[in-house]
Structures are given as C-alpha cells and as structure tokens.
Design brief:
- By secondary structure, the protein is an all-alpha fold.
- It has two domains: 1-47; 50-206, Tetracycline Repressor, domain 2.
- 74% of the residues lie in helices and 0% in strands.
- It contains eleven helices and no strands.
- It has helices at residues 8-19, 29-36, 40-46, 50-74, 79-91, 97-107, 109-112, 117-142, 150-171, 177-191, 196-206.
- α4 runs antiparallel to α5 and α10 runs antiparallel to α11.
Length: 207
C-alpha cells in the first residue's frame, strides 16, 4: 500500500483526486479537510480556493498522461507503431481501474464547473496533441504515413479518444478494450495511408 504524502500540499492534492468528481454532487470543504488530514488554515496556506485545487489536479493529471504518452511513442519502432501506442495508452485510461479513477476526476461535471477549468483542459489537450502531431509529422516525412495531415489528424485522433473516454469513464459499458483500440488504430492508420503496417501491428498485438 502506498504511504500517504508527507507534505500538506501533496495531501490536499491527493484528497482532491480521491474525492472530486467521484460521485454525484459537489465535494465539500469539510470532506477535503478530513480526507487530507489538515485544517482550514493549512488548506488556504497552500491553495487560494477549491477552484485552484481543481486546476492543480488537472495540471497534475495532464503531466502524468503526457509523460506516459511520450514514453509510449518513444519506445515504438516507427510512426505507425507510435500512433498505435499513443491510442493504446490514452484509451487505456478507461479500462484501467486506477487510471479510470483519475479520469473520472479529470472529466467530471464537478471539474467542468470550475472557473477556468475549460482553459486548463484545453491547455493540457494541446500538449497531448503535440506529442501525436510530432509523431505523425515524422511519419509523413519518412513516408510511413504518406497521406497524413499532422495537425488535423492529431486533432481528430485526440478528439475521438477523449470522446470514447468520456463515455467509458462516466457511463461504463460493455465495450471490449482490444476491439475498440484495434478498430481505432485501423481506422486512423488506413486514413493516413499506413494500411500495410496493420498486419505487422496486429501480429505484434496478438503476440
């Protein structure tokens, strides 16, 4: 079991991640203080408001996801494989219980009502799209994604993944992860002219 954070700011941030967006209705300040094990004065020494805490949560979640996406694409052998790895890693948020917990806070109605949350989310999404855009641009230059438009394709792929995650995280459902992932990989790689890479990627996935 992971030990609790030792500094107050980290404890408050983790309390927000544990509580905010995980149920219907708003999380109260009393609940946050109790979960973090701090008093009101300590909270306001670290965050000006609950809204500021939520924005810090968004930034932390975004940084974690960006690091994971960068690691996934860096470990890939070529651009088609990197696109597939990006889709696999990001979509996996909806099917991994620990990451889905964080996703519920990231995508929740309570977070959406926070002042400046939309701006913070778009800033995070832009960083995540940039990882994919650079991969697609490299594939276009190398000829492995010959029909790609890096900016538009990165935007489209990211938007579809976010929508799938919203549905999965908020509503659950019986969609199979592998079927959903493979369908999206096929759709986008064929669209970017990388149909020949699909058989290799399918074989690697089965292995």
């Amino acid at each position: 079991m992971t030990p609790p954070p030792t500094d107050a700011r980290s404890r408050i941030l983790r309390a927000g991640q544990m509580l905010i967006g995980q149920r219907d209705g708003a999380t109260t300040m009393a609940e946050l203080l109790r979960e973090a094990g701090v008093n009101r004065r300590t909270f306001y020494e670290n965050f000006k408001s609950k809204d500021e805490l939520v924005l810090a949560m968004v930034d932390a979640a975004a940084a974690t996801l960006q690091a994971g996406l960068e690691a996934a694409v860096t470990a890939s052998r070529d651009a088609p494989s990197a696109v597939a790895a990006y889709i696999d890693h990001m979509l996996g948020i909806g099917w991994d219980e620990r990451r889905a917990h964080d996703g519920r806070a990231f995508l929740s109605h309570e977070v959406g009502l926070t002042t400046d949350a939309a701006t913070a989310l778009e800033r995070a999404y832009a960083r995540h799209r940039a990882v994919l855009r650079d991969v697609i641009a490299a594939g276009l230059a190398a000829g492995t994604l010959p029909k790609a438009d890096p900016e538009r394709d990165a935007f489209a792929i990211h938007a579809v993944l976010v929508r799938h995650l919203e549905v999965r995280v908020r509503l659950g459902g019986q969609l199979d992860f592998a079927t959903t992932r493979d369908g999206l990989v096929e759709l986008f790689l064929i669209g970017m002219g990388a149909g020949r890479a699909l058989s290799r990627l399918r074989a690697a996935t089965r292995a």
